[in-house]
Amino acid sequence: MADDERGEAVLAAATAAASREFGDDLVAAYTLGSLAHGGFAPAVSDVDLALVLRETGGGTASRVHDVVAAARDAAAGTDGLAERLSVFWADPETVRHGRGGRPARLPAVDRLDLLDSGVLRHGTDVRDGAVPPTHDELVRGSAAFLVERVDDAWLAGVADPAALLARGPRPVTKTVLFPVRFLHTLATGEIGRNDAAVASYDGAHRDLVTAALRWRGGALGERVAAWTLLTDHLAGLYRECVDAHLAALPGDDPAVTGLRALRDALTLLGASST
């Protein structure tokens, strides 16, 4: 089975599981991410699906979790791709306008991906009349992700490149390319697709950034060279990303305090590696 076909098998299993779980309340399902707009790398890419539900509520997240579990069981023979299934969800109004107040899992950048490149695979297209997220919404979303996801466990990978390398190409490339994609979105207001983000990056850590794009093919190459690049550049790349977002956000933005704390932690990592 070809790489894209294995990804499609996972999406088909997830769509079928969602249809069983939500019935007529499943308004639409879309393929998102690299399987929709290109650049799928089977060794490292996620398999992204968006569900549009007639209504969402406090129990929706649990029901989507059950959909993911059922899909992973049904698509177990896809060489690990089923474990990388990521399901986004929202109601039609949130898809079209991104307004808060309704339970959803559809960050601004993923909503933009759905509006720009999502491939309808089930139901009725709800994108007519949609208003894409603003540049400010995208930047705030990136900042929130940095604060929420770059936790102590994530920083441990930044601090210990040898341990990060031992986990394989997927965690390495995700760790390196997330801040590059955020910097691209900050500069352009566009989705930070890996190829475009790397092409537009002109900072001090370009050697690591371009190497990470090669590593998406599944091979890290010579380990000492990879370790050296990560040791010399990874913490600095994150500091560059955090500083850029701090400069772009107003001082009263909710993410600023978390970004400053993250900046302090990254500065300590840089000092400890010298």
From TrEMBL:
It comes from the Bacteria. This is Nucleotidyltransferase.
